[in-house]
Amino acid sequence: MNDYMNTIVNESIARIKQRENSFNSGRVASVRDYILEVTGLESVGYFEEVHVGAKAVGYVNQIRENSVIVAVVSQGSPVYVGDEVTATGREFMATFGKESKGHVVDMFGRDLLNGKRFEQTMAVRIENPTTPIMDRTAVNRPMRTGITGIDMLYPIGRGQRQLIIGDKKTGKTQLCLDAIVNQKGQKTLCIYIAIGRTKKGVKEIYRELARRGAMDYTIILAANNDDKPTVLSLTPYVGLAIAELYMKQGLDVLVVIDDLKRHADVYREIALRVGKTPGRDAYPADIFYTHSRLLEKGCQYKNGGSITILPIIETRGGDITDYISTNVISITDGQIVLSKKNFDKGQKPAIDYGLSVSRLGGAVQDPAVKKIGAKVRRELLSYLETREIYELANTDEMSPELKAKLQRGQRMLAALNQYKFSPIPADQMVATFTALVAQPEQPKPQPVQTEQLQADPAVLKQSEEVAIHGFDDATLPADYRKPAAK
Amino acid sequence: MRVGKIISISELNVEVLIDDAKVSYHDLLRVPLPNGGALRLEVQEVNGRMVKTIPLGSVIGLKKGLDVESVGEGLSAEYSDQILGRVFDSYGDPLDGRPLNSVHRRNVYDRDLDFNEIDINGDVLWTGIKVLDFFAPMQKGYKMGLLGGAGVGKTVLIKELINNVYKGCNSNSVFVGVGERSREGKELYDEMTEADLLDKMSVVFGQMGENSAARSKAVFSGLTLAEYLRDVKHQDVLLFIDNIYRFVQAASEINAELQNMPIENGYPASIESDVAEVEERINSTGNGSITSFQAIYIPADDLTDVAVQTISSHLDGQIVLDRKVAEKGLYPAIDVFRTRSNMIDVEKIGQRHYHLVEETIRYLARYQELEEIIAVLGIEELSAADRQIFHRARKLRNYFTQPMFVAENFTGIPGKFVAIGDVLNDVENILNGVYDSVDEDKFLFIGAIGK
């Protein structure tokens, strides 16, 4: 009897050893929308592509002790408990049509305009390791958008990540389309990544770009509203993986991600569905890393190629200090804040010049633009702040200096107005604003000079006495035992 | 040596079933991969034969049942003069493409300081930045936190401090980049190389593109390097950490993946001890001192955040950066009401400085109230005395802006190093009305007045 059992067991083992894939199929044990629990799929790798018959394709999201969690990315017909799931032995990858330029495509290598798959395709790893720190070089070439408020005041360089943030209908997408259109003739490839936008909206963007000849160098990579959340969550990574292919060939790439708030929400949905612990605002703990590793793909590469990323975030009620917004602000190299209030006042683009930042600043500007830009930015911010204080004040009682400052500020703000798809070349910006700053009737800003600050000697003496009065020399650090003689 | 096999995998958590070997917390294990490489795992939890580990690399393609081997030691970093002028990753491996002639490595978790080892004396350390020296003066051995929300200027301030203090002091320093931008890391490296200043510095990077294991370990590697300089080389070490919040953030990610119950906003329940484990190692001893500048990110601009509060309870001083100030174009964008230092004490800085700080804060506090009144009534409705305070406060506010050496690209104005004596005189003069007739714009982005 013992021998008999042994024989049977040994035979089974031999069979299993011969057919190595005997563990490579399993059965669906539970279905929660696009998340499947599968039993029996013993030897799959993490992130391996699996098929549920001909019904659905997914990837391995978690390997547990007794089961495997599969996230479905595309599905033709309903999946039932008990359906057979087979492993493919390969990592889940996206497909990229080599002729994608000029088309609206998805991560499966399909041309969405005609619904067909591209003929020449290649598999693209969804995520490559981050570009090593030592393979990056300084970001110092301008990426011109043609918008004065950006190019002159808050410039974007090639390899920079600049967030575009604002409420609904404040011109976020328009700003990015302007930037794309302005890349004509710049040997730049543009990738517009639409995450969860309406199909109609994506089609309109395609039309706008095509009409201006910008589709010649642009790929629109879309994950539509009705795609699986998994697709929405992976698509931006695919877009950046494609961008990396071109960057490594030495090309400049401009990537627009529209938008990351939606992406964060989709990611949260998946995380909660697979049972991850919720953190702040119910986002999973790794929501920062989700965006940081995505945006860290933007860089100036050592071979001269670059990836510039313009992620978009939609805010509510103009609040840029919510969790996701501040997370992304802390990742990007600056932000262009668009304000509904400015938009309604007729200021286009509706940039909030106080809240916007470019961390690269003058490093990515031409010397002429940099010189005038720094000056204009300082004066403009000072004007915007002073304006509030003196809003109710009587202009007759103001000092002429102050009056001139307020007038000049107003003129500057007006000169920054600019309508869509009307780019301004850099030299024209410089000319306009040099004239504005140097208008003869206005006193030029002057550096502080000693003689101007020399005050009434009597007061000065008095103040020195106050200073000396009542402190004990011995308790002071050596640096200022004696007040410096003036 | 095989010690077990993998039984479950998720992005940041690999569970291993151990045969019968002994493993303990913080041990390293390795999984040989079919392509010849290996994935390292660090033990986080041991539950009978079930061991939870965090992978120190990508788990894509990893399979259940793979053999796991023991490495025999925990994470270690180089502990010799070889560290100077070098750049390391979170696990103590060189990043700059040059081989490391390892002389001696030390475990990164080992060093705890005894109560009697800690030295609390130190000389004053002037940074040449007006607001810092005036409102939050430093002493050697201090821990200074630079708190700020996203994009208000923490990193610029850290870089200015490196510029002013490291270059000025000529002492050894360690820079630890945790969860920050790779671009900035590379820029720092390039700037230091170009200025020939890298030879007294060691750098550790676990930047934001790396997984949470890397971001949580960078601090420990950096500390080990700083301890070498303090304990063996007897140096006064400057330790720059940008950004310590990211360490707690990474710990939250790991905690969530290990399925431990979190506290509010998803932080690990062990947040206090996690932070203490790091902060208590940053101290001066009889051998040498460690002075640290730590950038602290404020998530969602919420200063009451648990992580921020926990870290700041370890600090000797803090500089708080405020978005409302930054919005007005006033840099460094400091919230003077929340900025503090243990040095602000009559016995430490003397009566004159102390009195001036008090008076300045009083002016600025009144200014805030007046601003609200003006928004409703207009400036003409103020009394003469209030109007005087209003104008002088605006001059003070403008005076505390400063052109920074590292921000010349933004401002177009060369940086200024300002001596504390000048700051005290200038502030005193503004308060006393010496400059009442001077236009307030003249005080923007200058060094000392008249210099």
TrEMBL record, chain A:
Q: Give start-end ranges for the coiled-coil region(s).
A: none
Where is this protein found?
Answer: Membrane
Looking at the record, the residues that make up the ATP synthase alpha subunit C-terminal domain are 365-437
Respond yes or no to whether keyword Transferase is given for this record. Answer: no
The ATPase F1/V1/A1 complex alpha/beta subunit nucleotide-binding domain extends over: 146-358
The record's family statement is: Belongs to the ATPase alpha/beta chains family.
Spell out the protein name for this chain.
F0F1 ATP synthase subunit alpha
* Species of provenance: Bifidobacterium colobi
